[in-house]
Amino acid sequence: MNKLFTIFIIFTLSFYSCKNEAEKEMTKVWKDEIVKTEIEFSNLAQEKGMNIAFLKFVANDGVLLRNNKLIKGKDSIKTFMQNSTSKGLSWKPDFVDVSASGDMGYTYGKYIFEYQDSLGNKKTSEGIFHTVWKRQADNTWKFVWD
Asked: What is the CA angle 98-74-135, rounded to 5?
């Protein structure tokens, strides 16, 4: 009986150890996917403009916080972003985390926005961004909060 109990304990610990390693590996995969998506998002904003990038990477139920107001849903964001053709926004995530189930994640980091004011002077605005990502049915990541 003692041997059987010892074998059971060893098997149980081995099982949970393997499961834990598999979970860690999946967490790394999901984090890498989110970082890759965030970088693609930033690159598209620089290449094609903010309106195109935001509409490509927003979920249908996405929300933007701008000027202390919430813009809710992809259609409202499309209306809000229609004149945002600037290509001067760039950012890179400094941190990423993902839920244990791999369906939600978030990033934050620094952004730089370069633009010309009404007099043609080059201006730079720097700050911190925070994005919440949600895995979609097709396994892509779209933001639900920015």
From this structure: 25
